[in-house]
Amino acid sequence: MQVDRKSRRARAPVAPPTSFELCQNERIDFEAESNHLVSTPLSSTQAIWPRISLVTPVFNSARYLEATIRSVLNQGYPNLEYIIVDGGSSDGSVDLIRKYERKLHGWLSEPDRGMYDAINKGFARSSGELMGWISATDMLHAGSLFVVGGVFQTFPQVEWITGRPTGFNDDGMAVEILKLRRWSRMAFLAAANRYIQQESTYWRRSLWDRAGARVDDSRRNGSDFELWARFFRYARLYSVDALIGGFRSHPDSFGLQNLEECHRVHEEILEKEIASLSDAQGLKHFRAFSERVMSIPALAKPWRKLVLATLPKLPGKEQASIIRYRKGAWVIE
Question: Please, what are the domains in the chain?
Answer without folding.
Answer: 8-332 (3.90.550.10)
